[in-house]
Amino acid sequence: MKSLVLTALAMFLFSSCSKSEPIDQSSTYVLSTGITYTTVNKTDSVNYLILKAKTQGTSTSITWDFGDGESQQGDSVVTHYFPKKGTYSIKLTVVDFLSNTASASKDIAITADDPAYVPHKLIWSDEFDGTTLNTSNWVNETNIDVNNEWQKYTNGDNLAIKDGILTITAKKVGSGQKKGDYTSGRINSNGLKTFLYGRMEIRAKLPAGRGTWPATWMLGTNIAKAGWPGCGELDIMEHVGYNPLWVKGSIHTPSSYGNTVNNADYKLTDCESAFHTYGMTWTPAKIEYYVDDPDHPYYTYSPAVKNASNWPFNKPCFFILNLAIGGDWGGAQGVDDSIFPCSMQVDYVRVYSYK
User: Fold this and answer.
1) Of 150, 153, 207, 264, which is least packed with CB atoms within 10 Å of its CB?
2) Known catalytic membership, residue 272
């Protein structure tokens, strides 16, 4: 009996000593990150780098600072172009679901200028040469009913190309003063010419008269999936005829759309009588609007912390050129039927590389 008791006691002590205490998982969780990179041979140069975030832990936000004035969010693997020789201090910041932050930095030497680099190189344009719309660049939009506008967009009947100028003409075809009594034109480049980053320019002369609403703008190519404003909207230029001395640039995102707070006005006293270049510089870090001179933007949009709500502009966009009549903004002070026909004229649409 004594041996049985001793045996049971030994088994109890062994079992007790061998049990592990529960591990506090939170005490062993660590968020950390690092940077690795490789070169990409695109122009027989060493100026394209693939940067990779090596993160331990669960990150919910990733931000890259490339050390050249540009930054990018959201991707653990990014490709960045450094056209000029130099040493760049790359910084990576990650944030997890507990709001913990980890960062890493690496100095990377670019050993030579890219011999193929041309600053702000022209990468695409439509100069509107010839006599018909280039269907490799544009399609007519007809089934558009937005903003309580009064015009009906036609399949090219309101467009003309002559002497290097695209003319979009609005006409009064009914008794006037109601929806359907006007026709106009609207073209877009969706599925044909789309762009991610760059300097976009549209040289145009705007129509005069109360009730006109011309615009040169861009929408995200993911609009069918993300919808509006999830796709993002870049209004490079808008003008309403009842305010003839001003043009406006606006940005629409899920965080602010419709009567967006992200906009600015630019005084331009001859916008209805002379051609001007309406431009946008779009980089991973910011969007700038300007008239005639890209070195003097009148509006800059650059959220300090970019996310899907305020920065859907890390995806390609397509162009839209149109002349609306009436509508919530264009018709806010009515439509003057004595102005028809009236036209927006476009000299060219050009896209340059942003670096």
Assistant:
1) 264
2) no
